[in-house]
C-alpha cells in the first residue's frame, strides 16, 4: 500500500505528525528575533534532555559531524587516546581518531559483546605519566544491539584525572538515562534522526567545562566544526552559519513532546519495548545477537539460525511495508535488527513481531506454534 511504510530501524526513526507540521512552517530569518527565541528555547530543552548545565551546541550535519567535532575541538595531533571498538561505530571512532593523527590504543571486544570496563581501568591505571588525553567510545553500538557501560567507564576516566570522556550517544540519548553532569561526561554527540524523533539534518555536541579547557589547547584543523564560534553565538541565541531553520522548528516541537512525556517515562518505554522485542524473538527460537543482559534499548539484533536474514527482511517489507535493519559488514545476511527507538509505541512492537512470525511461516521456517512470539511480547507489554 502506498505511503504505508513503517520504519523499524535505528534511524531515521518515525516522525510524529506534530513534528512534521512544525517543520512545514514557512522559513523565517535566521538572524531575526523570532528565530532567536526558538534558539533560546531549544537550548533550554537540550540541556534538560542531556541533564546538564553545560553547553549543548547544534550543528547542521549528521551524528558523525558531532563525533568529529568532539575530537577536533578537544585534542591535538599525536595525543594518546583509548578507543573502544566492539562494532561498526566503534570502528568509526578508531578511523576518525587515526585520520587526525592521534595515537590510538584500541580496546576491543567481539561484536555482540560489551566493552569491558575493567580493560579501560587497567589501561588508565597503568598510565603513570597521565599521557592518555581521552577515552572515546560508543554508548549504544547500533550495529550489534549492545549497550556499553558508559557510566562505569566514565567513572574510571574521572579517577584518572586528566583524560576526557568522549561518547557517541547517537542512539542512546533519548532512549535511556545519559545524565551528562552526574556521570562526568565531557563530550556527548547525538543526531536528530534517532531518539529526537526528527528527520536527519541536525547534530548535537554537549561540552563540559573540562572539554572547553581542552579546546583552548587543541591544534587539530577545524573551521565549520570549530565549536568556539558556536559557543559564542549560542550565548546570543544565534548560530555562526546558516542553520537548518525548519529543523529547529521540528526540534522545538519534538523536545516539547518529550518533556510532556517525561524522562523516566521515555526510558521506561524504551526498556519495555526492548524486553518485548527480546521476548518475542526468543519465543520463536530466534537467538539474540547481543550478549544476554547487554541489549540496547534502541535496537534488538537477531541472529536467526538457518534463516537468510536478508530474505526475511525483504519479505517483511514486501508483504507488510515494515522496514527492518540488516546486518552490517560481515553480519550481512546473518543478522536483522528491530529498531524501537524514538516515536515507537506498543502497537509498533506487536505489529513488527507479528509480521516476522507470519513471514517465517510463509517461508516454512517458523519454529513452534504460530503466535508464540506475539503472545510473549504482549505479556511483557501488558
Tally of separate domains: 2
**Mean pLDDT, nearest integer?**
97
Please give the alpha-carbon distance between the first and last residues. Answer: 30 Å
Q: From N to C, what is the helix and strand string?
A: EHHEHEHEHEEEHEHEEHHHHEHEEHH
Highest-level CATH class of the largest domain? Alpha Beta
Here the CATH topology of the largest domain equals: Aspartate Aminotransferase, domain 2
Instruction: Give the fraction of residues assigned to helices.
Output: 40-55%
Radius of gyration: 21 Å
DSSP summary, beta strand count: 13
The coarse overall form would be globular
What does this 3D model show about the protein?
With 382 residues, the protein is an alpha/beta fold. The chain folds into two domains: 244 residues, Type I PLP-dependent aspartate aminotransferase-like (Major domain) (Aspartate Aminotransferase, domain 2, 3-Layer(aba) Sandwich), CATH 3.40.640; 120 residues, Aspartate Aminotransferase, domain 1 (Alpha-Beta Complex). Helices cover 43% and strands 16% of the residues. Helix 7 links the parallel strand 8 and strand 9. The model has no long low-confidence stretch (mean pLDDT 97). The strands form three sheets. The protein has a seven-stranded mixed beta sheet, with helices on both faces. Keywords: Aminotransferase, Oxidoreductase, Pyridoxal phosphate, Transferase. Its cofactor is pyridoxal 5'-phosphate. One of its GO terms (molecular function) is alanine-glyoxylate transaminase activity. Belongs to the class-V pyridoxal-phosphate-dependent aminotransferase family.
Amino acid at each position: 500500500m502506498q505511503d504505508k511504510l513503517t520504519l523499524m530501524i535505528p534511524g531515521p526513526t518515525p516522525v510524529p505528525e506534530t513534528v512534521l507540521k512544525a517543520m512545514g512552517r514557512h522559513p523565517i530569518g535566521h538572524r531575526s528575533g523570532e528565530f532567536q527565541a526558538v534558539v533560546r528555547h531549544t537550548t533550554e530543552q537540550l540541556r534538560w534532555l542531556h541533564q546538564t548545565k553545560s553547553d549543548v551546541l547544534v550543528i547542521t550535519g549528521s551524528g558523525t559531524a558531532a563525533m568529529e567535532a568532539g575530537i577536533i575541538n578537544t585534542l591535538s595531533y599525536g595525543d594518546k587516546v583509548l578507543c573502544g571498538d566492539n562494532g561498526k561505530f566503534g570502528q568509526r571512532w578508531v578511523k576518525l581518531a587515526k585520520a587526525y593523527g592521534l595515537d590510538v590504543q584500541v580496546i576491543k571486544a567481539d561484536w555482540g559483546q560489551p566493552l569491558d570496563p575493567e580493560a579501560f581501568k587497567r589501561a588508565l591505571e597503568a598510565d603513570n605519566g597521565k599521557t592518555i588525553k581521552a577515552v572515546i567510545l560508543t554508548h549504544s553500538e547500533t550495529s550489534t544491539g549492545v549497550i556499553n557501560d558508559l557510566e562505569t567507564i566514565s567513572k574510571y576516566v574521572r579517577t584518572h584525572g586528566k583524560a576526557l570522556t568522549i561518547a557517541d550517544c547517537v542512539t542512546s540519548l533519548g532512549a535511556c538515562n545519559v545524565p551528562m553532569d552526574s556521570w562526568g561526561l565531557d563530550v556527548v554527540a547525538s543526531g536528530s534522526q534517532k531518539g529526537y524523533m526528527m528527520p536527519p539534518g541536525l547534530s548535537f555536541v554537549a561540552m563540559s567545562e573540562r572539554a572547553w579547557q581542552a579546546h583552548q589547547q587543541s591544534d587539530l584543523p577545524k573551521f565549520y566544526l570549530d565549536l568556539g564560534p558556536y559557543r559564542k553565538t549560542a550565548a546570543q541565541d544565534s548560530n555562526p552559519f546558516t542553520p537548518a531553520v525548519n529543523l529547529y522548528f521540528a526540534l522545538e516541537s519534538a523536545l516539547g513532546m518529550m518533556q510532556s512525556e517525561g524522562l523516566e517515562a521515555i526510558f521506561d518505554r524504551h526498556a519495555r519495548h526492548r524486553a518485548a522485542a527480546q521476548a518475542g524473538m526468543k519465543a520463536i527460537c530466534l537467538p539474540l545477537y547481543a550478549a544476554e543482559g547487554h541489549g540496547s534499548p534502541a535496537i534488538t539484533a537477531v541472529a536467526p539460525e538457518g534463516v537468510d536474514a536478508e530474505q526475511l527482511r525483504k519479505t517483511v517489507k514486501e508483504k507488510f511495508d515494515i522496514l527492518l535493519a540488516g546486518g552490517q559488514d560481515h553480519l550481512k545476511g546473518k543478522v536483522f535488527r528491530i529498531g524501537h527507538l524514538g516515536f515507537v509505541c506498543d502497537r509498533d512492537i506487536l505489529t513488527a513481531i507479528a509480521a516476522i512470525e507470519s513471514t517465517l511461516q510463509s517461508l516454512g521456517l517458523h519454529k513452534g506454534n504460530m503466535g508464540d512470539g506475539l503472545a510473549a511480547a504482549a505479556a511483557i507489554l501488558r
